[in-house]
């Protein structure tokens, strides 16, 4: 069956389709205009036809040129403004979004729900609820692409990317890798399953009790020697991480930053970048010594400490 | 030494002296504790030195407009490269 | 127009003045291209330094400031002799000897630069300041500094070597009387190239030798 | 018009033409004659065009079925990478500037050669060396990074011959810089008496502007590839995120060149079309001076928009807005050009010879491709269609439908001048029309598939896209036939066709005032010019007979 319009299954998709249709109409008109003029002139002024020739009429002058130059200019500025306003509206995720961690690697998508449920090349989400994605890549650049949602985000190794969507249609949709990533780029495909909230809750509950992310992180925290410095009992003078997440931190160079995920991540991978005020920059970098998944677990663990009663010393 | 030769040397030696003076300045300025200003001074001095070479040794002072245009194009386009790339790098979150 | 000048005219030019102007213009176009070539490298450096200021300061302290400064002085001096050679060849008087001597000096200073640079490279290698497993500094991005150090000084050295060959060739041809130094566009064109290579080094000096000295 | 270079006033040369000037192979390989070097370039790029075409023919064959079984994924990746690299750097970038450009620019401005003839020859040898590297990369096992060489895949993960391929492109870049410098200096320094800037044919303007882009953009490509080579060879960590490097920086450097490069690929084509239309519409090009400003504006603004290739790459949203805005602005001068071509037909005497068919095809296809570029410049739409077949369709519409068509148009227009032989007109018209239909059948379905979400560089794909791929592949078969036709009949014409007169089209350009093919030194006497280009008279008489309509139009335009 031949179709001309992709499925429209997210709030974003509806808004983008409007712009697309508008542009389509506009450029269709212009193309038609150009083609009509081309064909019209070609037929009327074919060699040997009886149409009158002579010099160009008076009206076709400099003003003509300036006229269409400024007309197109205004049109383009308008188009830019229109498209951009949609873009900006879609930029920040709503506060109540549920969160999913995505790890891309050659050649699969791993998704992790906040309760620790894991999927490979699949992502189950509820309909009508905003979903925030935190994406990372373990090797090369991939791109998270869901055509039905008009959603695409490159995932560059070494960076944390965020994007979000809100599904509006039940069903199963393609998840594709859109950035060329090597041999099996075209097989790096998965599916997004949009379910009713009830089904979703049921599905989530039925997932094997997979180690909770934060629990895994806690184990790693000891295993990788973090606790050697960061545990309250440690001899080294290192900040306690309890209650850190979401707070503001004063740095030794005078900056004040919020301890969000990117900050935690940087603290682990590039500790020298943001040194906490009052501490020596002795923490070693763990770049290359932890996999993406392990970093995620550690970050999740540190986040889980945010609510512990123990105060920060 | 003919007068032509003397004026040739004098003119160019003056520029050379200025260049070496700037080099010395730049050497010591690198040790001043002025934060990022130190870096700026280092590159500022380099720019002045480059300008001296361009204007006097490469004779842009006497060159025709066309030649100056070619020289300016290199700098302007390098400026575009810097400005737009840094517009991303400096505002990336 | 002198007979010698007549001999210098090449197809498709019809008079020597225009041919010279054309050669100057042509080499400047190439130099504009070179500015973007090195500009892109310096941009790479700038972006990396913005991302990792401490690592770059730490790495900057490891380069040999003495060698760097000495080499800058050598190149600036070679620019002096080159400028005198070019202006001498354009002078109304016949300054043949001066031009040849200055060209030879320029080439010699260029070689001196490479020799100093060679010592510096050896020292860097001895201290294994090469990106890789044996790299002595703890900060990973310091390796980027040294990656750029090797690439940029290396590319500069290649340019300089080409310059030495060109200048040396002119000096030799002049000495053997094979070249009409006075009207030939070659001296001026080579001179412009030489100066640009010099300017590139003037920027490499604060790029690689000055960071981190004040802390 | 007493002291003008009116056609026919110049004494016809008696010395042998440039083809017969000397006959040994050695004389060709050491020639500094711009016309012969143009032929040498033409041979190389023809070779590469068919190599690139052969590679993509296999790809199109494979894409007929969703789960391709013809070749492995690795082979598939190598084929489209080779196709992209070859078509861009070894065919389209040098196509018009290095063949028609270096052949015609001296002829059109009344010079006897390019400013630096030996540099010109050097440029050809660089291209040959570059081509050798690329062919080596292919024979040794291919390269699978795509033509974009994105890091860190190209630096740390690809197991293919990235180094050799990058080296090839690196050298090809320097070859184009050499030609660019040469052309700029020639246009500035060697115009014959009376050839003022605003009497230059638009083709010269276009190649001149292209050369400026080449000279200022290509070095940055060289650096980005140099760093990739250094990283592969020596393990330098510049783009390695694990050691603090920045993969996105590579994209900035690459696109700083490669966006302007798309104008390197289309401006000369625009120049060709601006020459064809006046000849066959017997009309002065409409709004000549605006056409010139538009060319310069495209060349200038083209440097400010590269970030539109990186909207979803993780670039800062602020920078994305700047780049999106500037991408819309660059469409304005393109619009000026489209409208001016169209209005050049008004009140003309239009003959539908093969070059004119190509030119008309160009206008329609370029407009379609350009308009689809506006979709891509709008960030929210680009987020959906980037890295899909929508983009593939966009750039093939401009580069194949536009530039390649224009190249063929120019080839036919100047074939008599270059070779001294006429081409067979009805075959040529047939090929032009076949190309047009084959082209649309190949690439229009890709727009649809792209918006539906078919990603590019996909060896296998979800089955619902099959129908579009089958259409596209069948179009490609027609297209291949249409490209093989000219190869056949043009070769035939070299041996069997009628000898061409000096000015078969009754055209006004200076290149038509010398013999076909031109003598070794182009003109026997220094030409002089006393009027603007395109001095045609719409009532159908030839240029010499009619009154100088040019002046009257000039007055009207004041
Ligand atoms: C010759 C080649 C060429 C040319 C001329 C262009 C011209 C343009 N291109 Fe294209 N482009 C490419 C070759 C080219 N492109 C290639 C090769 C790629 C992909 C590279 C890769 O990833 O592999 C690409 C990709 C590409 C992208 C990135 C897509 C992506 O990867 O996500 C974008 C985004 O903005 C873009 C935009 C434009 C625009 C706005 C123009 C404009 O210059 C077009 C201007 C022309 C017109 C607009 C038509 C005429 C105008 C009128 C008739 C006026 C009236 C119109 C109105 C009033 C609306 N192009
Ligand atoms: C610049 C010029 C240019 C030209 C002229 C072409 C010409 C063509 N391109 Fe090209 N294309 C690119 C530039 C170009 N392309 C680029 C830059 C890419 C991106 C690469 C990347 O992703 O990295 C691309 C990618 C690309 C793809 C996407 C591949 C993918 O993403 O998986 C496709 C798919 O259909 C395609 C098709 C075609 C076709 C059918 C032609 C036709 O017009 C070709 C017609 C010519 C022939 C068919 C030759 C005829 C001769 C023969 C048939 C003889 C054959 C002999 C034997 C087989 C023995 N191209
Ligand atoms: Cu992952 Cu493509
Ligand atoms: Cu672009």
TrEMBL record, chain A:
Provide the protein name: cytochrome-c oxidase
**Residue ranges of every copy of the Cytochrome c domain listed in the record:** 212-306
Question: What is the organism of origin for this protein?
Answer: Methylobacterium nodulans (strain LMG 21967 / CNCM I-2342 / ORS 2060)
Please give, as recorded in its UniProt entry, the membrane topology of this protein: Multi-pass membrane protein
Q: Which SUPFAM superfamilies match?
A: Cupredoxins, Cytochrome c, Cytochrome c oxidase subunit II-like, transmembrane region
GO cellular component terms given for this protein: membrane
Catalytic reaction annotation: 4 Fe(II)-[cytochrome c] + O2 + 8 H(+)(in) = 4 Fe(III)-[cytochrome c] + 2 H2O + 4 H(+)(out)
Spans traversing the lipid bilayer? 20-43, 64-83
| Cofactors | heme c
Q: Name one GO molecular function term.
A: copper ion binding
> Which UniProt keywords are listed?
Copper, Electron transport, Heme, Iron, Membrane, Metal-binding, Respiratory chain, Translocase, Transmembrane, Transmembrane helix, Transport
**Which Enzyme Commission number(s) are listed?**
7.1.1.9
Q: Which domain of life is it from?
A: Bacteria
List residues of the Cytochrome oxidase subunit II copper A binding domain: 95-206
Automatic annotation (TrEMBL), chain B:
Q: Which keywords does this Swiss-Prot/TrEMBL entry list?
A: Cell membrane, Membrane, Transmembrane, Transmembrane helix
- Any one GO cellular component localisation term in the record: plasma membrane
InterPro entries on file: Caa3_sub_IV (IPR011743), Cyt_c_oxidase_su4_prok (IPR005171)
The answer to whether UniProt assigns keyword Lyase to this entry is no
- What's the protein's topology in the membrane? Multi-pass membrane protein
Where can this protein be found?
Cell membrane
Instruction: List all membrane-crossing ranges.
Output: 12-31, 37-57, 69-87
Could you tell me what this protein is called?
A: Caa(3)-type oxidase, subunit IV
Q: Which organism is it from?
A: Methylobacterium nodulans (strain LMG 21967 / CNCM I-2342 / ORS 2060)
UniProtKB/TrEMBL annotation, chain C:
Record SUPFAM superfamilies: Cytochrome c oxidase subunit III-like
What InterPro entries is this protein classified in? Answer: Cyt_c/ubiquinol_Oxase_su3 (IPR024791), Cyt_c_oxidase-like_su3 (IPR000298), Cyt_c_oxidase_su3-like_sf (IPR035973), Cyt_c_oxidase_su3_a-hlx (IPR013833)
Q: Which PROSITE patterns match?
A: COX3
Q: One GO BP annotation here?
A: aerobic electron transport chain
Record keyword Transmembrane present: yes
Coarsely, its chief localization is membrane
Transmembrane segments annotated in the record for this chain = 25-47, 67-86, 98-119, 147-172, 192-210
What is the membrane topology here?
A: Multi-pass membrane protein
Where does the UniProt annotation locate this protein?
Cell membrane; Membrane
| Keywords associated with the record | Membrane, Transmembrane, Transmembrane helix
Molecular function terms in GO for this entry?
Answer: cytochrome-c oxidase activity
Domain Heme-copper oxidase subunit III family profile spans what residues?
A: 1-213
Q: Name one GO cellular component term.
A: plasma membrane
Pfam families recorded for this chain?
Answer: COX3 (PF00510)
- Coiled-coil regions, chain positions: none
UniProt keyword annotation of Secreted present: no
Q: Which family does it belong to?
A: Belongs to the cytochrome c oxidase subunit 3 family.
Q: Tell me what this protein is called.
A: Cytochrome c oxidase subunit III
Source species taxonomy: Bacteria, Pseudomonadati, Pseudomonadota, Alphaproteobacteria, Hyphomicrobiales
UniProtKB/TrEMBL annotation, chain D:
Q: Where in the cell is it found?
A: Membrane
As for membrane topology, the entry says:
Multi-pass membrane protein
Indicate the transmembrane segments per the record.
Answer: 37-59, 79-109, 121-143, 163-190, 202-229, 249-273, 285-306, 318-336, 357-381, 393-415, 427-447, 467-490
Q: What GO biological process, any one, is recorded here?
A: electron transport coupled proton transport
Matching InterPro entries, A to Z? Cyt_c_oxase-like_su1_dom (IPR023616), Cyt_c_oxase-like_su1_sf (IPR036927), Cyt_C_Oxase_1 (IPR000883), Cyt_c_Oxase_su1_BS (IPR023615)
Q: What is its main location?
A: membrane
Record-level GO cellular component terms: membrane
Give the Pfam families listed for this entry. COX1 (PF00115)
| Enzyme kind, highest EC tier | oxidoreductase
Per UniProt, residues of the Cytochrome oxidase subunit I profile domain are 28-530
| PROSITE patterns recorded | COX1 (PS50855), COX1_CUB (PS00077)
> Where in this protein does the record put region Disordered?
510-558
Q: What is its EC number?
A: 1.9.3.1
The reply to whether Secreted figures as a keyword in the UniProt entry is: no
Record-level Gene Ontology MF annotations: cytochrome-c oxidase activity; heme binding; oxidoreductase activity
Q: Which UniProt keywords apply?
A: Electron transport, Heme, Iron, Membrane, Metal-binding, Oxidoreductase, Respiratory chain, Transmembrane, Transmembrane helix, Transport
Q: Which family does it belong to?
A: Belongs to the heme-copper respiratory oxidase family.
Q: What is this protein called?
A: Cytochrome c oxidase, subunit I
The organism named in the record is Methylobacterium nodulans (strain LMG 21967 / CNCM I-2342 / ORS 2060)
């Amino acid at each position: 069956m031949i179709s001309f319009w992709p499925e429209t299954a997210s709030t974003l998709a509806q808004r983008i389709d409007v712009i697309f249709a508008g542009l389509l109409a506009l450029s269709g008109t212009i193309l038609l205009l150009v083609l009509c003029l081309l064909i019209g002139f070609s037929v009327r002024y074919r060699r040997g036809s009886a149409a009158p020739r002579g010099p160009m009429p008076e009206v076709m002058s400099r003003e003509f040129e300036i006229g269409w130059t400024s007309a197109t200019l205004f049109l383009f500025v308008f188009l830019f403004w229109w498209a951009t306003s949609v873009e900006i509206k879609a930029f920040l995720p709503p506060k109540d979004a549920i969160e999913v961690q995505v790890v891309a690697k050659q050649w699969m998508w791993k998704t992790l729900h906040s309760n620790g449920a894991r999927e490979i090349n699949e992502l189950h989400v509820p309909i009508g609820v905003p979903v925030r994605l935190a994406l990372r890549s373990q090797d090369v650049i991939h791109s998270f692409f869901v055509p039905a949602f008009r959603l695409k985000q490159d995932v560059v190794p070494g960076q944390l990317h965020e994007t979000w969507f809100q599904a509006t249609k039940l069903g199963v949709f393609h998840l594709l890798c859109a950035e060329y990533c090597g041999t099996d780029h075209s097989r790096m495909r998965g599916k997004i399953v949009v379910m009713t909230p009830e089904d979703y809750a049921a599905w989530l509950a039925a997932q094997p009790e997979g180690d909770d992310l934060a629990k895994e992180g806690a184990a790693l925290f000891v295993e990788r020697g973090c606790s050697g410095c960061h545990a309250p009992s440690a001899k080294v003078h290192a900040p306690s991480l309890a209650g850190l997440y979401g707070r503001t931190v004063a740095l030794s160079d005078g900056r004040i930053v919020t301890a969000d995920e990117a900050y935690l991540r940087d603290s682990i991978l590039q500790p020298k970048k943001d040194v906490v005020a009052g501490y020596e920059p002795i923490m070693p970098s763990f770049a290359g010594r932890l996999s993406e998944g392990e970093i995620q677990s550690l970050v999740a663990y540190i986040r889980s400490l945010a609510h512990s009663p123990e105060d920060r010393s | 030494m003919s007068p032509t030769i003397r004026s040739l040397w004098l003119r160019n030696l003056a520029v050379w002296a200025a260049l070496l003076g700037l080099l010395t300045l730049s050497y010591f300025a690198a040790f001043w504790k002025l934060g990022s200003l130190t870096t700026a001074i280092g590159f500022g001095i380099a720019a002045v030195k480059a300008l001296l070479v361009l204007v006097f040794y490469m004779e842009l002072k006497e060159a025709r407009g066309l030649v100056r245009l070619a020289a300016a194009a290199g700098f302007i386009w390098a400026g575009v490269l810097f400005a737009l790339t840094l517009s991303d790098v400096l505002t990336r979150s | 127009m002198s007979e010698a000048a007549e001999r210098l005219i090449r197809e498709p030019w019809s008079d020597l003045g225009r041919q010279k102007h054309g050669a100057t213009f042509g080499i400047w176009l190439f130099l504009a291209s070179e500015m973007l070539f090195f500009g892109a490298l310096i941009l790479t450096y700038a972006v990396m330094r913005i991302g990792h200021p401490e690592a770059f300061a730490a790495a900057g302290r490891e380069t040999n400031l003495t060698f760097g400064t000495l080499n800058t002085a050598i190149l600036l001096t070679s620019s002096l002799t080159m400028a005198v050679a070019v202006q001498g060849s354009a002078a109304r008087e016949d300054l043949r000897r001066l031009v040849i001597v200055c060209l030879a000096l320029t080439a010699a200073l260029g070689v001196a630069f490479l020799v100093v640079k060679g010592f510096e490279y050896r020292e860097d290698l001895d201290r294994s300041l090469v990106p890789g497993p044996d790299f002595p500094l703890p900060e990973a991005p310091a390796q980027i500094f040294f990656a750029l150090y090797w690439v940029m000084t290396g590319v500069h050295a290649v340019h300089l070597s080409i310059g030495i060959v060109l200048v040396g060739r002119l000096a030799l041809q002049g000495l053997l009387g094979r070249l009409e130094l006075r009207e030939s566009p070659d001296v001026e064109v080579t001179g412009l190239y030489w100066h640009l290579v010099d300017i590139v080094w003037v920027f490499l000096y604060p790029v690689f030798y000055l960071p981190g000295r004040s802390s | 018009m007493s002291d003008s270079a009116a056609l026919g006033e110049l004494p016809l040369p008696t010395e042998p033409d440039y083809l017969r000037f000397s006959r040994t192979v050695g004389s060709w390989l050491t020639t500094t004659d711009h016309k012969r070097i143009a032929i040498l370039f033409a041979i190389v790029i023809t070779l590469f065009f068919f190599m690139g075409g052969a590679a993509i023919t296999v790809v199109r064959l494979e894409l007929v079925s969703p789960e391709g079984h013809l070749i492995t994924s690795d082979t598939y990746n190598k084929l489209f990478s080779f196709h992209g690299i070859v078509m861009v750097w070894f065919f389209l970038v040098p196509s018009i500037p290095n063949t028609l450009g270096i052949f015609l620019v001296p002829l059109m401005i009344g010079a006897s050669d390019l400013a630096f003839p030996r540099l010109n020859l050097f440029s050809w040898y660089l291209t040959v060396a570059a081509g050798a590297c690329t062919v080596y990369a292919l024979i040794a096992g291919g390269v699978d990074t795509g033509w974009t060489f994105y890091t860190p895949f190209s630096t740390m993960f690809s197991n293919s011959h990235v180094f050799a391929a990058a080296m090839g492109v690196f050298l090809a870049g320097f070859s184009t810089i050499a030609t660019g410098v040469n052309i700029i200096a020639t246009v500035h320094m060697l115009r014959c008496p009376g050839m003022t800037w605003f009497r230059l044919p638009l083709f010269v303007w276009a190649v001149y502007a292209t050369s400026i882009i080449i000279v200022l953009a290509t070095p940055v490509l060289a650096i980005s590839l140099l760093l990739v080579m250094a990283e592969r060879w020596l393990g330098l960590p510049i783009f390695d995120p694990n050691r603090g490097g920045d993969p996105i920086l590579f994209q900035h450097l690459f696109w700083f060149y490669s966006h302007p490069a798309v104008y390197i690929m289309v401006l000369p084509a625009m120049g060709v079309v601006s020459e064809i239309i006046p000849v066959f519409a017997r009309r002065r090009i409409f709004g000549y001076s605006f056409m010139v400003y538009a060319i310069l504006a495209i060349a200038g603004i083209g440097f400010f928009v590269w970030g539109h290739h990186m909207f979803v790459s993780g670039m800062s949203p602020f920078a994305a807005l700047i780049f999106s805005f500037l991408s819309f602005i660059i469409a304005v001068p393109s619009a000026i050009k489209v409208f001016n071509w169209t209005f050049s037909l008004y009140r003309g005497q239009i003959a539908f010879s093969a070059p004119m068919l190509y030119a008309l095809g160009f206008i329609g296809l370029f407009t379609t491709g350009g308009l689809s570029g506006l979709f891509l410049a709008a960030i929210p739409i680009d987020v959906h269609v980037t890295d899909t077949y929508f983009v593939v369709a966009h750039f093939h519409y401009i580069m194949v439908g536009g530039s390649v068509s224009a190249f063929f148009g120019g080839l036919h227009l100047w074939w008599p001048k270059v070779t001294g032989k006429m081409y067979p007109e009805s075959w040529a018209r047939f090929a032009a029309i076949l190309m047009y239909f084959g082209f649309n059948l190949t690439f229009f379905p890709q727009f649809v598939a792209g918006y539906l979400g078919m990603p590019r560089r996909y060896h296998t794909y979800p089955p619902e896209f099959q129908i579009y791929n089958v259409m596209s592949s069948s179009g490609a078969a027609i297209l291949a036939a249409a490209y093989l036709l000219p190869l056949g009949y043009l070769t035939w014409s070299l041996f069997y066709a009628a000898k061409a007169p000096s000015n078969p089209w009754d055209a006004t350009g200076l290149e038509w005032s010398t013999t076909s093919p031109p003598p070794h030194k182009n003109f026997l006497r220094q030409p002089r010019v006393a009027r603007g280009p395109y001095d045609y008279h719409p009532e159908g008489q030839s240029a010499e007979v009619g009154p100088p309509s040019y002046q009257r139009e000039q007055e009207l335009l004041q």
